[in-house]
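User: Reviewer 2 asked us to show a designed sequence for the structure in our supplementary figure. I'm pasting the structure tokens here. Could you produce the per-position amino acids so we can include them in the response letter?
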């Protein structure tokens, strides 16, 4: 059993799922494998962290104020809530990002816990050396979070059956995966990772 691993679930929120304000096509397909992964990590005594966009109503991230995106995941709204079928274990550490009005903050490493700790500080305190990542969206927040994890010196495995991309430009997600591979990110399915960690 590896004891230096943690799971990071990126932005599996209502507004990024079908019917949401900025829906990722088939974004809710990540919910079941990530719930399964979270249950495994928690049962194994390994940390589970979940990032969320937590935007103020007025931010330069949104199109009306000069940004690229429609309003989404506004703090304290139903759109910002985690998908109702996502089973986050008790003790999941929530990282909120995008709450600074003049920044985009795609990466979970830009966020903070409720008590003001950065993701990097939390992972260091937990002695995490290998981060397993899944969530939304492959070509934006997942990509940025995984690249920042590599810059922080962590081993990173992307859960390939627990990601989905926006693909505003066709091929964006494929390009993101190429970028991550070049950065040393590894790839595996949830079941493969469970077998690997179980040893």
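Assistant: Here is a per-position design you can include in the supplement:
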């Amino acid at each position: 059993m590896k004891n230096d691993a943690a799971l990071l679930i990126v932005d599996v929120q209502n507004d990024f799922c079908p019917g949401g304000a900025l829906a990722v096509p088939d974004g809710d397909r990540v919910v079941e494998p990530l719930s399964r992964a979270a249950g495994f990590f928690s049962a194994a005594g390994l940390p589970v962290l979940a990032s969320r966009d937590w935007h103020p109503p007025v931010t330069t991230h949104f199109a009306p104020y000069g940004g690229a995106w429609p309003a989404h995941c506004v703090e304290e709204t139903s759109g910002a809530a985690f998908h109702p079928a996502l089973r986050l274990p008790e003790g999941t550490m929530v990282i909120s990002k995008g709450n600074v009005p003049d920044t985009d903050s795609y990466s979970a490493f830009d966020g903070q816990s409720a008590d003001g700790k950065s993701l990097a500080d939390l992972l260091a305190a937990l002695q995490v050396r290998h981060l397993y990542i899944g969530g939304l969206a492959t070509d934006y927040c997942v990509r940025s979070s995984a690249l920042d994890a590599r810059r922080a010196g962590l081993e990173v495995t992307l859960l390939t059956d627990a990601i989905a991309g926006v693909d505003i430009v066709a091929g964006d997600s494929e390009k993101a995966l190429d970028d991550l591979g070049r950065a040393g990110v590894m790839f595996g399915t949830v079941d493969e990772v469970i077998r690997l960690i179980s040893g």
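For the response letter, you might also mention the following. Strands lie at 5-10, 48-53, 93-97, 130-136, 155-164, 186-188. The chain has a mean pLDDT of 96.
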